[in-house]
Specification:
Layout (H helix, E strand, L loop, with lengths): L9 H5 L7 E4 L9 H10 L4 E4 L11 H6 L3 E5 L7 H8 L11 H13 L3 E4 L21 E4 L2 E7 L3 E12 L4 E2 L8 H7 E12 L18 E4 L3 H14 L8
Parallel strand pairs: 1-2, 1-7, 2-3, 7-9, 9-10
Antiparallel strand pairs: 4-6, 5-6, 7-8
């Protein structure tokens, strides 16, 4: 059986991202960010983006944080805004719109709903707290709620994006992805919730190289595979940043 080869250059893949789009980016507090793709965004200066991500990233001018610094993000949809000084300053200065914050599980369920083609989910978390008047002044209306079997739930709309960018350890040429460590969060759901999905990986291998039981995101949900930093280069990138932040000692 012949499999489509989805390996493309980063310019060809990222050309799909245009000003004003909704963009999902996989990561967890900066861990497992698609570094090469974010560097492309920074160099291209594409702006007015609505970024959907778990967190704003890692402090100290690292990758996604610089998108806030350069003013490329118009709206952020995530769990908080406080892990980087760049995102916090942009938010407090009114340069980035944040309609509301979501508990991490709620955010993940909203992405999963988008992945599964659902209109939304019913979430009891935060009822009586997150619906307090004035808590989220940017909301056009009160958070919608329904009662079911004597319990109140928020009606949380699904999250989808024009483009989703996820980060894997390795992928085959068809786009079957294997994650490692922190990368195993909800990136498959992000891939499924994007109308066009790019995976950046440390290593590209032939179809059949990844055991079926180790495929974390099937290739049918991936449109483009791009070569990122090697694993050694990626580890060095993070190591250098942690040394810069004073959290690791420089190498002897």
């Amino acid at each position: 059986m012949a499999y489509a080869n989805k390996v493309v250059g980063i310019d060809a893949a990222m050309r799909r991202v245009a000003s004003g789009m909704r963009l999902m980016i996989g990561e967890f507090v900066g861990a497992g960010e698609p570094a090469k793709c974010i560097e492309w965004l920074l160099a291209s200066r594409v702006g007015e983006l609505t970024v959907i991500a778990n967190t704003p990233g890692m402090r100290g001018g690292f990758l996604k944080a610089r998108l806030f610094e350069q003013g490329q993000i118009a709206e952020f949809i995530g769990t908080h805004i406080g892990t980087t000084g760049e995102s916090t300053e942009s938010y407090l200065a009114g340069k980035v719109r944040v309609a509301e914050f979501f508990p991490m599980g709620t955010w993940a369920e909203k992405v999963r709903a988008g992945a599964m083609g659902l209109g939304g989910v019913l979430v009891p978390v935060g009822v009586g707290i997150l619906d307090q008047p004035g808590l989220f002044p940017a909301l056009a209306a009160a958070k919608p709620k329904v009662s079911l079997d004597g319990r109140e739930y928020f009606v949380e709309a699904a999250l989808e994006a024009d483009v989703a960018i996820i980060k894997g350890w390795r992928a085959d040429t068809f786009g079957n992805v294997e994650f490692r460590n922190t990368g195993r969060q909800n990136q498959r759901d992000l891939a499924m919730a994007g109308r066009y999905t790019i995976v950046e990986v440390n290593e590209i291998v032939p179809v059949g190289s990844i055991e079926p039981s180790r495929v974390d995101c099937p290739g049918v949900f991936v449109d483009a595979v791009v070569q990122g930093y090697s694993l050694a280069e990626q580890n060095d990138l993070y190591r250098q940043h942690w040394v810069k932040l004073g959290r690791l000692a420089p190498a002897a």
